[in-house]
Amino acid sequence: MSVIKLSSPASRLGSDEAAASPPARGFWEIPVLFEDNHLLALDKPAGLLSSPDRYDPHRPNLMKLLHTAIAAGKPWARERNLTYLMNAHRPDCETSGVLLLAKDKPTLVALANLFGSEKPLTKYAALAQGTPTEDKFEIDAKLAPHPLKIGVMRVDAKNGKKSRTRFAVLEKFSGYTLLQCEPLTGRTHQVRAHLRHAGLPIVGDILYGGKKLWLSRLKRDYRLKPGHEERPLVSRVALHAEALTLPHPVTGQTVTVTAPWPKDLKVALKYLRQFAK
């Protein structure tokens, strides 16, 4: 698997960005998941914005880093003869996983039409708090920005936009559930807001009522070594875009791009299986 290195001054990294890339290194390593003459799919780390933040345009974001590298003629861009690269969708900053980009404008337009249709293109894995009453369920609840909390979405039957998400239980634990999530529409924070509405906030999703996952809360005889401070198993939003399936915008053939689970989520599942069954 090839990797794209994108530089970013460590001094500009905020708390979320620092979690995605150690400040001492000062750059992100972004794995390439799929590539051809028209498409480039990357494995976006949690904590890195996909596009500029409307409220804080100075925060590092993946598209700006990519465009800066292309303009500077970095080796990875020269090797691909890249002059154009645009994201076809906009995963949350806190979400890790598949990010699809177009290498030319006609491909971007075709992708925009696909993402605008009501099709289950992306599958997410989410570690949620609580246990749903059914193993398969769907939430059809309109979403709108919260009138008082900037950057937060809420269910709003009167003023919200149509939002539908399908859910399926993958694995159950004591107090937690691993879910597969298929958003049928593309609203901001859709999976997160819908799970909050269902009383199943995502682990680590402080914005929507989730809490960090601690080993000391799972393991009864947990003992911390003297002089050490416990770190949460999962401190960020436990949401990962693990698969994207769509017809290729040029060839029409079905393309499926998958992103491996990040280390923190794999470790969390390991301990949940061991101590929370």
Features:
alpha+beta; 6 helices; Pseudouridine synthase; 11-stranded mixed β-sheet; Alpha-Beta Plaits; 277 residues; 29% strand; globular
Structural commentary:
- The chain is α+β, with helices and mostly antiparallel strands and 277 residues long.
- The chain folds into 2 domains: 1-116, Alpha-Beta Plaits (2-Layer Sandwich), CATH 3.30.70; 118-277, Pseudouridine synthase (2-Layer Sandwich).
- It has 6 helices and 13 strands.
- It has helices spanning 15-20, 62-71, 75-80, 105-116, 190-197, 263-275; strands at residues 3-7, 27-35, 39-44, 86-87, 96-102, 122-129, 136-140, 143-145, 153-155, 164-173, 176-183, 239-247, 254-258.
- Strands 1, 2, 3, 4, 5, 6, 7, 10, 11, 12 and 13 form an 11-stranded mixed sheet that branches. Strands 8-9 form a two-stranded antiparallel sheet.
- A hairpin with a 6-residue loop joins β12 and β13.
- The radius of gyration is 19 Å and the shape is globular.
- The model is unreliable at 10-24 (pLDDT under 50).
SSE layout and pairings?
Elements: E1 3-7, H1 15-20, E2 27-35, E3 39-44, H2 62-71, H3 75-80, E4 86-87, E5 96-102, H4 105-116, E6 122-129, E7 136-140, E8 143-145, E9 153-155, E10 164-173, E11 176-183, H5 190-197, E12 239-247, E13 254-258, H6 263-275
Parallel strand pairs: 5-12
Antiparallel strand pairs: 1-2, 2-3, 3-5, 4-5, 6-11, 6-12, 7-10, 8-9, 10-11, 12-13
Alpha-beta classification: alpha+beta
Task: Using the alpha-carbon principal axes, give the shape.
Answer: globular
Q: Order of helices and strands, N to C? A: EHEEHHEEHEEEEEEHEEH
Estimate what percentage of residues fall within beta strands.
25-35%
The CATH level-2 architecture of the largest domain is identified as 2-Layer Sandwich
> Number of domains in the coordinates?
2
Q: Calculate the terminal CA-CA distance, rounded to whole Å.
A: 35 Å
Number of strands: 13
Radius of gyration: 19 Å
CATH homologous superfamily grouping of the largest domain: Pseudouridine synthase
For this structure, what is the CATH class of the largest domain? Alpha Beta
Q: Can you summarize the main beta sheet?
A: 11 strands, mixed
Give unreliable regions as ranges: 10-24
Q: Could you name the CATH topology of the largest domain?
A: Pseudouridine synthase
- Number of helix segments? 6
Level of helix content?
10-25%
Mean pLDDT: 90
